Recover the amino acids of this structure.
């Protein structure tokens, strides 16, 4: 028993030294979200799977990917409207075309946020690919300039981060953690 305890202690120390030497940290996971949160965008959703700290994949009952859900926060925490960040939910279909953009709970003045909604800003990106949405020039909404500029900047920044994440996933060989936990797309 003593030999086993010594062996386990040595194994633990060696593992910790490996993590420190390789600057490896275990992946942080996104919190789970209920199906009810994605059903307005994916009526056939049966499963929502968090992919690392990046995004959520939405799947049907057969396991087919229906699309992706992106939250702008925390990636856009430094992008502000008039009264702070303008957090967004961005729903993408299976081909990474925008299905819907929705402003989440925020501290914007409600009437200014409503002007952005009423002006149809969120529908501006519907049907566009990620690349098209990033490059699409969108005018600010008169009377809600700060809020609409915050929305535009949040959307573009979050989509750019998503593009980089996908590029890294495709180009980088799986590391120790992705091999161990199978978190690749």
């Amino acid at each position: 028993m003593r030999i086993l305890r010594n062996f386990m202690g040595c194994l633990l120390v060696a593992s910790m030294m490996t993590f420190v030497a390789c600057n490896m940290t275990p992946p942080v996971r996104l919190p789970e979200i209920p199906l009810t949160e994605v059903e307005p965008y994916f009526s056939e959703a049966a499963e929502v799977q968090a992919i690392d700290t990046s995004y959520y994949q939405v799947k049907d009952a057969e396991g087919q990917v229906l699309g992706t859900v992106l939250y702008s926060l925390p990636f856009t925490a430094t992008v502000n409207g008039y009264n702070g960040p303008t957090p967004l939910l961005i729903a993408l279909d299976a081909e990474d075309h925008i299905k819907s953009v929705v402003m989440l709970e925020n501290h914007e003045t409600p009437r200014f946020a409503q002007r952005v909604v009423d002006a149809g800003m969120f529908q501006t990106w519907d049907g566009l690919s990620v690349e098209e949405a990033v490059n699409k020039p969108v005018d600010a909404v008169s009377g809600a300039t700060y809020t609409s500029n915050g929305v535009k900047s949040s959307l573009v920044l979050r989509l750019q981060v998503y593009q980089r994440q996908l590029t890294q996933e495709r180009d980088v060989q799986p590391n120790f953690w992705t091999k161990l936990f199978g978190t690749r797309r």
Q: What stands out?
A: Residues 7-27 have pLDDT under 50 and may be disordered. Residues 35-181 form one domain. The first strand starts at residue 47 and ends at 51.
